Amino acid sequence: MAKRKSKKRSLSAAEWEQLASKPHFQELMRKKKRFIISATIFFILYYFALPIGTGYFTFLNTPIIGSLNGAYLFALSQFFMAWILAILYVRHANKLDQLIEELIPQQRRKSS
């Protein structure tokens, strides 16, 4: 993904502190945190479902196609799940970044 080149100056540390104290910015950060924590919990549960499922239950050890059993398919699905979560995170982060980019000019006007 190409970096966006901006001709505008970045905010100073004091301006960022003022922006970070705004309720709208704090709400965006809460949304980001909520998404990251939810995705992490989901991934950890999904990841540990395989060893727990194969260790304590027999349904994943059942052959599905030849010697290919449910555990192999579940393990393969973890690769897809990691990519899906990564794609969802990038989309979510891009939306939040876009909303924050809209707040920066407002902050510049207020601090000028």
UniProtKB/TrEMBL annotation:
Keywords: Membrane, Transmembrane, Transmembrane helix. It comes from the Bacteria. Pfam families: DUF485. The chain crosses the membrane at residues 35-59, 71-90. InterPro entries: DUF485. The keyword Glycosyltransferase does not apply. This is DUF485 domain-containing protein. It comes from Laceyella putida. The lineage of its organism: Bacteria, Bacillati, Bacillota, Bacilli, Bacillales. The keyword DNA damage does not apply.
